[in-house]
From TrEMBL:
Molecular functions (GO terms): hydrolase activity, acting on glycosyl bonds
Enzyme Commission number(s) from the entry: 3.2.1.8
Species this protein is from: Massilia genomosp. 1
SMART domains recorded: Glyco_10
Record keyword Glycoprotein present: no
Protein name: Beta-xylanase
Record has Transferase as a keyword: no
Ranges of residues in domain GH10: 29-352
Length: 359
């Protein structure tokens, strides 16, 4: 907690939000760290109180990814994920599973990196992977990110290990294989920057149209929504949501955060960064959160709202600080500060969920 935090909390937070999730008929979620991870909820009663009060759905930040659940060819480890699921159930929360297949080098199991086999063999090993995990969680999770980040920025498919071995077939096969063992969970394709990158969105919609033509049972699109205060515009975001809505697919905001500093902007590149969360910045962030959530509510019909999830609980825990900004300075992308106090951003989400004016 910094001195700047106390300034904005006293001057700009306004009326407290009593229970965020009560303001929506769809899931209002949050991602969590677990166990020995930094900022784990298991070690923080204060964080647990926030989770229990404000959110109706939980996502594990890491422990349900590939290398955690399937570290060796015939080895599956569900201990941590099952404990996480128990925490959700014990507290009346649903669970969104993240993610069955992801290309990231540090999340692909070593045995897959070293696996030798033709396309058919690769599709077979991925089928076993998907179906073993989906079977374990069948009836226990509300939804799953089946494949994560398979499309390039600028369009086209990412040249991942899986694409190199199978082409794009692994994506739809993963959806088909998951549905074969879980008839009820919502199945999502999940990606970042599809709300802003027109070429990436075109690849996505082309893939979705192919799925429809071949009766691939995908339920919806997960828009990660790692966005910024000034980019992309609300109209651009809404137009992207509409692409899924027009295809009668659910829309789920899966990883929302809005940092005050945009590391890709010219001012940031020139060294002009915000080093204090002033009252004015806190209110601007509140308005931005409200506008994004309101755009979701206004654009996506009720039957296609998969939910809104923020990617982390408190500002210090954000991946943006630990991964992207390398702890070079503070940033404030989430809804609670380091002491788990409500920020104006929380009121912004509440107003967006309620359809109130964004001010």
């Amino acid at each position: 907690m910094t001195g700047a935090d106390s300034g904005w909390s006293e001057k700009t937070s306004g009326a407290d939000v009593s229970k965020l999730s009560k303001l929506a008929k769809f899931p209002v979620g949050v991602s969590l760290a677990y166990g020995n991870e930094a900022f784990s909820y298991t070690n923080s009663p204060a964080q647990q109180a926030v989770i229990k009060t404000h959110f109706s759905q939980l996502t594990a930040g890491n422990i349900m990814k590939m290398s955690y659940l399937h570290p060796a060819p015939d080895t599956y480890n569900f201990t941590q994920a099952d404990d996480f699921l128990k925490f959700a159930r014990d507290n009346g929360k649903t669970l969104h599973a993240h993610t069955l297949i992801w290309h990231s080098d540090y999340q692909v199991p070593a045995f897959m990196k070293n696996y030798q086999g033709d396309k058919a063999a690769w599709l077979a090993i991925l089928k076993t992977h998907v179906q073993t995990i989906a079977t374990h969680f069948s009836g226990k999770v509300a939804s799953l990110d089946v494949v994560n980040e398979a499309i390039n920025d600028g369009g086209g498919y990412r040249n991942s290990l899986f694409y190199q071995k199978t082409g794009a077939d692994y994506i739809e096969q993963a959806v088909i294989n998951a549905r074969a063992v879980d008839q009820k969970a919502d199945l999502y394709y999940n990606d970042y920057n599809i709300e802003a990158d027109a070429a990436k969105l075109r690849t996505l919609t082309g893939m979705l149209d192919g799925f429809k033509a071949r009766s691939v049972p995908v339920t919806g699109v997960g828009f990660q929504m790692h966005i910024y205060m000034d980019y992309p515009s609300v109209s651009t975001i809404s137009a992207a949501f509409k692409q899924a809505v027009e295809r009668k697919l659910k829309v789920k905001i899966t990883e929302l955060d809005i940092p005050v500093n945009n590391p890709f902007s010219p001012p940031y590149q020139a060294g002009d960064i915000q080093r204090e969360l002033t009252p004015a910045l806190a209110l601007a962030q509140k308005k931005r959160y409200c506008e994004v959530v309101k755009a979701y509510r206004d654009t996506v019909p009720a039957n296609l709202r998969g939910g809104v999830t923020v990617w982390g609980v408190s500002d210090p825990s954000s991946w943006l600080i630990s991964d992207l900004f390398k702890n070079a300075h503070a940033d404030w992308p989430l809804l609670f500060d380091g002491a788990y106090r409500q920020k104006p951003a929380l009121r912004g989400v509440a107003d967006g969920l309620s359809g109130k004016p964004c001010i």
